[in-house]
Design brief:
Elements (H helix, E strand, L loop, with lengths): L14 H22 L6 H8 L3 H8 L2 H20 L9 H16 L2 H12 L6 H21 L5 H23 L8 H21 L9
Helix pairs in contact: 1-2, 1-4, 1-6, 3-4, 4-5, 4-6, 4-7, 5-8, 5-9, 7-8, 8-9
């Protein structure tokens, strides 16, 4: 995928207007992908929806791949920022788990984050080092959440908790992307919270590491 093109500062100093135009095109691309699917997000269709010319898109992003990468950049920046804000300390493992899972889901299911994930799925063969770095940073953020939830457990088990949250929420987002109607994921998230909190509480009570194969 082509690198993101950073626009030159307009000669007339209208940086605010340029930033608004750039944000408009990104937001319209996100809406296009979520409303009509990735295949509909052609250069022509995006410019029509955003009410701009192709020259404007080229000026800000270079080409369609640069625009898509800009959506990925924004989506993952918002997601990792939200995930790095750890939930408040709580002695109860279930409270920590429930807060973390629900906060992570709110961040994961935002329009920009969902569009970014769909772009990465659709352009897997074109994925560049920048996108791979985004995925690595995101995985690390989930590991950090797992360590917070599994406080006192061995690092490898706390890491497994983070990976489980990451895989589950990613699957829920993909499920939402493939159906037209909004999905209610409360039951799935509640089951995830039940499983993780029971695991953490059980391991803590036993005063030992998790049972083999528990996660």
């Amino acid at each position: 995928m082509a690198p993101v093109v950073t626009p030159r500062r307009p000669a007339n100093g209208s940086q605010l207007r340029a930033d608004r135009t750039r944000a408009l095109v990104i937001d319209e691309t996100v809406r296009c992908i979520l409303e009509e699917g990735f295949a509909a997000a052609s250069a022509k269709h995006i410019t029509e929806r955003a009410g701009v010319t192709w020259g404007v898109v080229q000026y800000h992003f270079g080409d369609r791949e640069g625009l898509l990468m800009a959506v990925v950049d924004k989506g993952f920046a918002e997601l990792t920022e939200a995930l790095h804000e750890l939930p408040p300390d709580a002695e109860n493992a279930r409270d920590r788990t429930e807060f973390t899972v629900n906060a992570a889901w709110e961040a994961f299911s935002s329009p920009t984050s969902m569009a970014a994930l769909e772009i990465l799925i659709a352009t897997r063969s074109m994925r560049d080092t920048v996108a791979t770095q985004h995925l690595t940073e995101l995985a690390n953020a989930f590991v950090k959440l797992g360590k917070h939830i599994g406080e006192g457990l061995a690092v490898r088990h706390a890491t497994a908790i983070g990976n489980l949250i990451w895989a589950t929420l990613r699957g829920l987002v993909v499920s939402q992307l493939v159906v037209a109607e909004p999905l209610d994921s409360k039951r799935e998230r509640r089951a995830l919270v039940d499983m993780i909190s029971a695991y953490v509480e059980g391991a803590t009570t036993a005063g030992a590491g998790p049972r083999p194969g528990a996660i």
